[in-house]
Structure formats: C-alpha cells, structure tokens
Amino acid sequence: MNHPEDLKYTKEHEWIRDNGDETATIGITDFAQSELGDIVFVELEPEGTEFEKDEVFGTVEAVKTVSELFAPVDGEILEINEALEVEPELVNDDPYGDGWMVRITLRDASQLDELMSAGEYQDIVS
Predict the structure, then answer these.
(1) What is the tens place of the pLDDT at every residue in 51-61?
(2) Contact by Cβ (8 Å): 124, 11
(3) Rounded-to-integer distance, Cα 48 and Cα 64, Å
(4) How many CB atoms lie within 10 A of CB 46?
(5) Which of 2, 26, 64, 106 is the 20 to 30 A CA-CA neighbour of 92?
(6) Is 86 helix (H, G, I), strand (E, B) or coil?
C-alpha cells in the first residue's frame, strides 16, 4: 500500500494535504479504495459548504457498499473534483492524485497536528 509521507491521515481512511496557503486537499487513502472495490459514484457537498471536523462531507459508492466521507479538520469547501462526476474510478486509479475529492479552506491549521503521520497510519492498516 502506498501512503505518501507528505500527507496526514485519519482513522476513517481520509488523507489531507496542506497546500501551504491556508487551503488543503482531501481524499481517501489507497487502503480505503482497495477495501471498497470498484467505485461507481462519488457524491460531495457543494462548494461553499462549511463543516466541522468529523462531519460528513460526501459519500463514495462502490459496487457493493456506500461509505461516508468524514472531514479530517474544520473548513469550507472551495472546490470539488468535478472529474469524479464522470470518472469516479479515478479514486481507484490514483487516490492521491487525480482522485482527490475536495479542496478546502482550513479554519484551524493546528488541527492537522492531531492527525496521523504516514507511519502511524500504516500501523493501523497493516
């Protein structure tokens, strides 16, 4: 399994990348997409939606199950990955690249320090 070192991780299998400009990008991990199987639909809250840490910001539907997406930090959705509307399989093919879910404004960047490192995340999924 691939777990990039520059990301932070949640126990619910979301990742977050600090973009360095008070914004961040969120998606699901390689482990999560492999457990879900073939992803057929991604539904995300619209741009402008505000949420608090651990609130649901969307769902991922695979052939056999639906999984909720939980916010790793407080924020507001700046952009959704519209490519996922026509190609949800991008999440399977490239979960840390083209398969990203949302870009957000970070409300409290210090919350990133509460999340797991790649090594800590690897420990819980292996």
Answers:
(1) 999 999 999 99
(2) yes
(3) 31
(4) 7
(5) 106
(6) helix
AA letter at 70: F
Strand (E) or helix (H) holding 91: helix 90-93
Structure confidence at residue 57 (pLDDT): 97
Nearest residue to 72 (alpha-carbon basis) of 3, 2, 12: 12
Q: Which two tokens stand for residue 119?
A: 């090594």
Distance between CA 48 and CA 92 in Å, rounded? 26
* For the chain, the helix, strand and coil percentages under 3-state DSSP, each to the nearest 5: 25, 35, 40
- CA 57, CA 110: separation in Å to the nearest integer? 20
What would the two tokens of residue 17 be? 């990348």
Q: What is the dihedral of CA 90, 71, 26, 73, to 10 degrees?
A: -170
Alpha-carbon Rg for the chain, nearest whole angstrom, is 13
d(CA 74, CA 113): 13
Residue 126: pLDDT band (50, 70, 90) is: confident
Q: Tell me the pLDDT of the chain averaged across its residues.
A: 96
